[in-house]
Amino acid sequence: MSAHENRLAKEKSPYLLQHARNPVDWYPWGAEALERAKREDKPLLLSIGYAACHWCHVMERESFENDAIAARMNELFVNVKVDREERPDLDQVYQLVVQLMGRSGGWPLTVFLTPDQKPFFAGTYFPPADKYGVPGFPAILEAVADAYKRRRGEVLAQAGEITQEITRVGALPEGEGEIGQDLLRKACRRLLARFDSHNGGFGARPKFPNTMSLDVLLLRGTLEGDAVSKESVELALDKMQKGGIWDHLRGGFHRYSTDARWLVPHFEKMLYDNALLLRLYVDGYRALGNPRFAETARALVAYLFAEMRDASGAFYATQDADSEGQEGKFFVWKLGDLRAAVGDDHEAYEVARVHFGITDEGNFEETGATVLSEVRSIERTAAIVDLAPGAATSALERARTKMLAAREKRPRPTRDDKILASWNALLIGALAEAGRALDEPSWIGAAEVAFAAIEERLVRDGRVRRYYMPGENEAPEERRGFLDDQAYVGSAALDLYEATGNPRYVALARAIADAMIEHHEDPREGGFFFAPDDGDALIARTKDVFDQAVPSGASMAAELCLRLGEITDERFAAHGRRQIEPIGPTAIDNPLGLGKAVAVLDRLVRGTVDVVLVGDPSGERAQAFAKAVFRRFLPHRNVVWVDPRRPETAEAVKVLAEGKGARGDDTVAYVCRNRTCSAPVSDVAALEALLDRG
Length: 694
What we know:
Blueprint: H1 14-18, E1 26-28, H2 31-40, E2 44-49, H3 54-64, H4 67-76, E3 78-83, H5 88-100, E4 109-113, E5 119-123, H6 137-150, H7 152-169, H8 183-194, H9 211-223, H10 227-242, E6 256-257, E7 265-266, E8 269-270, H11 271-288, H12 291-307, E9 318-319, E10 322-323, E11 326-327, H13 335-342, H14 346-356, H15 378-385, H16 389-407, E12 415-416, E13 419-420, H17 421-437, H18 441-458, E14 459-460, E15 463-464, E16 467-468, H19 483-500, H20 504-520, H21 553-567, H22 571-580, H23 584-589, H24 595-606, E17 609-614, H25 620-630, E18 637-642, H26 647-652, H27 654-657, E19 668-673, E20 676-677, H28 684-693
Parallel strand pairs: 1-3, 2-3, 17-18
Antiparallel strand pairs: 2-4, 4-5, 6-7, 8-9, 9-12, 10-11, 13-16, 14-15, 17-19, 19-20
Domain Spermatogenesis-associated protein 20-like TRX: 5-166
Organism: Polyangium sorediatum
Protein name: Thioredoxin domain-containing protein
């Protein structure tokens, strides 16, 4: 190492490499740091963040690059830096510390541990000096070190109590009450009580997309005809797309809004948000018929293909919020920027100014810059600038094109180019579904290419590793995956099977589920542990059932097992039920935190809609049948393909294929609800009638 590098210089993670030239004597998590802490009897200072995290960058600039603060960190602690995207198991365990201390979790996460990894104090961002009633980081360092030195007994007692509580909180929750057919009604009643009926979304500020909760409302609106639930989803999708959380030039969603109106975002773009929102906007289009939602989906995919796709065909993790040391600088606009971008195209200037609300005052942190949002519809904009609507639309498109070209010349935010299995799987499944729903076969092809890249580099004997870096042909074995990696990739395989009819995807989903059950399931108490049985020994092995920014790995694991039980082998279903049934009452009481669990429970209680397509899958009629199915929003749906010329296609989905043959060379379809199947139909109109019968 050079004099200006610490141990992180040897790491692969872009986040860790960002800190490789700090004067802090950083260690990656591992035996070397833990052994030194024990040898020197020093507490560990554990700092967890991720590459696109704005406040992580702020704390680095203010404290970790400060020579005096770094010197005290090095003197008093063994300092460990962790990328939460590499090690979500560590993040999951130690986030609980902040919450148990009565504070909100988040990043950067700052935790002080005994040498045996037990936490005794934690927080998130600390300023470099006392500010806004928050102690400065230097004062925290001195107080924690003094307590560890002079009040060791108290520290160890607190560490023991916190560790015991983490173990308790990390267990499978069991509520009281029955799970019945009214679970969606009960859950949605609670969700609607938190819904912002003016701006859309949940709560006030900051405001996150909360896609799993919107999924639940869309389920109720579709399955039970609840108009308020439907209207709420439509409002949220409309307001998000018109707000500043949506990138109006390139497409794609930023992480969250700092205000209640979706206007000023936290600017990082995360692969998982865009994957979840792609599926939600496609579902919203199918359920609600709003063409803008399909347009949003197409623009979102265009962004992902243009800016987030690796040479292997898989997708990068994140894009940063900051550029040139400032959050949002890449994305915001002043009137002078607009004039420079569009040149002498006066109509484009006026339409963009009015439509996007670009003013001298701006709307972004008193900088005079404006976060773009759809302040006025194109029709109202046309009236204000005295143009015909068609001319205004054309002028807006010219402005967008020129503004994007100008923005591309700005210094770009950095990108975390890890290829994460779980987040890629979310997008692969969404692309497969969206490609079928919007008749975009190239999207399905892109999903297959991305899946092949993940499978080749990360899947071994049914076990999914966590991530690979660009240029790697295979991820190292020690990058063991976690529950979300297994459950998401298995689910993506089934989504690809439904879109393509290729039975190898079912076989792979089965292999992943078998390995997941072997290495993650609790055989005594039921449920799935987040970390595998051969992972690092941490202070607790938790079963986290709550959704975070992504669906709970436990709920996704349950859904994967249920889906496999429904189509290929009924033994899988029992494992799904052992996970999801005990948490039912808790999920109904807290649907904002357990939205995915509510959706899986509804699948279990309500049953599925199963469509069996029998015949040549490449034939015109089979494809017409598939279009009829995927055009509709059919919650809790299975689609299986049986080619009479290939017995393995029926064997792959034998639960649903049994007893369903073709009429000679004819292609037919069956629709089954709760294992009661229709007679075979051989024309699209008859299939559509069965699908719409409900």
